[in-house]
Write a structure and sequence with these properties.
Number of helices: 7
Shape: rod-shaped
Helix content: over 70%
Distance between the termini: 79 Å
Largest sheet: none
Number of strands: 0
Radius of gyration: 31 Å
């Protein structure tokens, strides 16, 4: 009489060969493609080729190969959007491959470069606006003084700060 189905599964898995535990663990945690392929070959050697869990693992390995190829292709094409998609697909598959870390670093570098360009452009725009306001302010102070022109120059200088 087994009151808990979890205990029954645990006891059953402990009685089976070690490859069964490795397949179940591999499907529930982070893994890489070579590890998945090795486990599949070992399972086939044990005669477990018809087992549903192994079929699921085979599907995961083929999906992982496809995602890795797409990610590598996106990296070569410098396609940030496709690279983001490949990274999210790898995370959905719980894939822990060395390429994934490299892709994430590459994406970070590209994002930082874009951020740096935007920061420099914003700083340049602010400096240009301040220079224009300064010139207008100097021009408004020449004789004869015009109150409207001077007020407009002061407002422009305040906005440029």
């Amino acid at each position: 009489n087994w009151p808990n189905l979890g205990l029954l599964k645990t006891r059953l898995v402990s009685a089976l060969p070690g490859i069964v535990r490795r397949i179940l663990l591999l499907r529930s945690q982070n893994w890489n493609v070579t590890e998945g392929q090795m486990v599949m070959q070992e399972a086939k050697a044990w005669g477990l080729s018809q087992w549903d869990a192994l079929d699921g693992l085979a599907d995961q390995v083929s999906s992982a190969n496809r995602v890795l190829e797409q990610g590598q292709s996106a990296l070569e094409r410098n396609d940030k959007e496709a690279l983001r998609d490949a990274i999210s697909d790898c995370q959905a598959l719980q894939l822990a491959d060395d390429l994934l870390g490299g892709w994430m670093d590459e994406l970070k570098q590209k994002n930082m470069a874009l951020f740096s360009i935007k920061l420099h452009a914003k700083r340049f725009q602010r400096n240009a606006a301040f220079a224009a306001a300064s010139r207008q302010l100097v021009g408004a102070q020449q004789w004869p003084l015009r109150k409207a022109k001077l007020e407009a120059a002061i407002l422009k200088a305040q906005k440029a700060e």
